[in-house]
Amino acid sequence: MELNRCQFELLAHVEEGGKKEYSWRDLADARGISGSLVSRELETLVCGGFLQREKDLLAVTEEGREALEPYRVRRAVIFAAGFGSRMAPVTLDTPKPLVKIGGVRMIDRLLDALTARGITDITVVRGYKKEQFDALLGKYPFLNLVDNDRYETENNISSALTAGEKVDNCYICAGDLLLLNPALIKKYHYRSNYLASYALETDDWCFDFDRGFAANYRKGGTCCFNQYEIAYWNAEDSARLREDWRRAYRQKDGASLFWEFIPLVLYKENYQVEIRPCSRTDIVEIDNFYELAQIDPAYLEYGASGKCIL
Question: Is 234:175 a contact under the CB 8 Å cutoff?
Fold first, then answer.
């Protein structure tokens, strides 16, 4: 059975939440669906054997899990090759994704959220001080570490090309985000999407909301959505991405491109990427050392040499 959007949202919500009591109002509010539609589609799923109902208890059946399987996230690719120069002096010794906040490496929060959803096919593209990423293998022995040795002279499109065929039905994430809400990482997605938060005004990378899809990608805007570098790409869009990245890279100055520029601007006609709204407090993008010290005051004690004097 091919699920419609409402059926998918209901099945995914119950599968993630486990067998428990659900009201149609809870389901409607959780997934942003009208109550009448929830009531109708619940009946369809129960009668079709995808959901099992005992009084007010709901549980996904084996048939329901099979129906969700085509929408399951298979893997993740994390781009972590850059220097993070604006975070100096702390990044003089440590790659930005490995910088600790509250005693926890930034990349660990993302890795923990992915593994909690059963996603363990994870590729980390490393570059600057790449040997330090070996320390991750003690906690995450399943990681696939690949090297982008062009990170100093090329933009992150080279990391995208380095990941290669691993970009397939996957999350693509920046390794230097502080993920504060791990529930944003989902086990299933209906279609390709970007996490973003609404902003009345921003000077950061953003896009507009056009009938559910991201449009007019640019730096700075009003009444728009701030882009976060956590995106899901389904199998079809992943295949297009890999080809379009190669095509863009071969162009003059192609090595200077951001990978996001390809699906959102250069070849935008090939994609319809949904906006998945989140709160500004769910993810923090730490752009410089000052912002790092605001979040973790321990860094106020760093001396000019970049060595901690605590």
Answer: no
